[in-house]
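Sat 14:20. Reprocessing the chain from the morning session after the first attempt stalled halfway. Input below, unchanged.
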Amino acid sequence: MTAATRADIRRNEETIPVLSRWFGSWKISLQRRALSPPELARSYDDAAAGWGRTIARLGFPAAYERLLRGVLRDRAPTTTGVRPRVLDCGVGTGALSSALARAWPVPFRLDGLDISPQMLARAGRRLGDSGLEATLCHGDVRSLPYGDNTFDLVVSAHVLEHLADPRGALDEMVRVLRPGGLLITCLTRRTALGMYVHLKWRTHRVTPAEAEGWLRGSGLADARCLSFDDRAICRLLSVACIGRKPASDACSTGAAS
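Finished this time. Tokens:
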């Protein structure tokens, strides 16, 4: 078997579940092949020009701000130093990071990573207009180019559901999170509107219980899902899940400055 054949087999095994039903002793399962990283990058490059308008129509910028304001009021991350470090995994056009700057009255250092060069270009302009100094990086969330225990807060919006196995990316996010730090991720919900997103982007759709299980499986404590409020249609599309990296002396020894 050639290396190219093995690569094709691995790619075809990277599937997203659509539905699964039992009929007596028969189990019928339907799955779709996940978009490969190059396919995902091209798809988001193509969508970048109109992405800001799309998420604005759905109410995400304001909904992100209200969500983050509530989370950080009640469960702010344990921070080190004067300026907390924040990582936005899958920064897109910068909507989530911009909402964070409005919701959290704390000067922070921002790093953003995305697989789409066009999204990164637009994020740079948007974050600059928001007065945020950001270091942006082209990369894959499954292999983050940051040291262990670097960030006080890791945020991510609609990234994990693109991956056949979200656990690898979650493990990476937890690895770079400092002990006591907080992870906030937004995911596509298992709803009728969530099915539309799945059909377009081949994503997972999760229940709150499934989302909490993903976070607990990567070692986060106090995993908990929160709904977006009723003022935006994005409540029907998305659910937010938060978790904290347990504080321990063993983890703390590698903390970055």
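Residues 39 and 45 are 10 Å apart (CA to CA).
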